[in-house]
Amino acid sequence: MLDRPYQAYVYAYPHKTAYRPLEPKPLLADVWRGEERDALSFYTHVPFCDVRCGFCNLFTRTGAPESLTAAYLDALERQAIAARAALDESGPAPRFANAAIGGGTPTYLSPDELSRLFDIASQVMGVGLGAIPLSVEASPATATPDRLAVLAERGTTRLSLGVQSFDDVEARSAVRPQKSADVFAALDAIRAAEIPVLNIDLIYGIDGQTRESWRASLQTALRWTPEEIYLYPLYVRPLTGLGRLNLSHDAEWDAQRLDLYRSGRDFLLENGYEQVSMRMFRRLDAPVVAGGEDYACQTDGMIGLGCGARSYTASLHYSFDYAVSASEVRGIIDAYVATEDFSRAEVGYRLDADEQARRFLIQSLLQAAGMERDDASERFGTGLELLRTRGFLESAPDDRLRLSAEGLAWSDSVGPMFFSEPVRAAMRAYELK
Asked: How far is Cα 301 from Cα 143, in angstroms, rounded to an integer?
């Protein structure tokens, strides 16, 4: 399992390719009955983009007309009404501890559509926008002053901009049509909007990228003193633009990505950033956004709206169907827009006690802070001992389980080590479409 450093980006467990249609489809009120709801996360998915980058396997479609985005918001409101009714029927009023809007590109929506989206969150779902952390994703082409004004006015505390590279040649190599001048203008507009936290996403491992060009992108990013910088390894996945080029996935590319990662990590640590995870780096003097301190991603639930959003309870993760190819994504979006009854969970994965423990371990261990020692050593002793043997697990002075610097570098192989065999089997059997 630890033969190559880049197995899979583990941002949630289990992956959607392990989800299956739920039979019978449970009522949301039953799904949430008895669940903790005093620190929920709220997520909204907007599955639209101007263009689809060559590396992207996100659930999104390009060129959506205004009639479709309007119909999508109509469906989103119907889903919100159903979700809130289920929460109210099944227990005490929920409290949302944080919120995020992702995609796709949420700022593909017009300013008026963004305002309606925020109204659905606040007026229908009861999310306390302005009182909790709220993160929104954007692209340089859509981070326009009029849209940013809506985001700032409605309580956005974090804006994440997908830049990937400040080098125009590298951007083209990643099949990402953008010009550095437009990226600069977007970053200036974001800073002018005074959103407290700016995050810049950068990618390493692009064809033709060198240590020098990678360092140049990092240095350019620092001109805007972003509070956060995320460093992502390039993945070439099936059914994506780059995936159709049949690029090689060899040990030499692995070594190049590891080298660029270490170079970028060291550069940021030397320039006033702390490492939060393999991907996330936070400026040491970044402002602390109030609210959400009691939310724990390993255990607390999430309500997701939109056809690409997941929802979590302790024992059930659920969503809608998943796809990558343009034609399949369009079909799922069309089906979502036509849906009238959102009272049931459609597709998902049930987590027993073992799966819940695996999820907790994975989502804790992949953070630089690690986790408190509990029964993890007994339950997952074999895997943890392998990490120690490789030098990936260090003895922390506070007696926590914590990945070493090199262990964090191999996070995308460390995480999959702890996938259960049923999850692995479901992922292997899934037919990507």
From this structure: 30
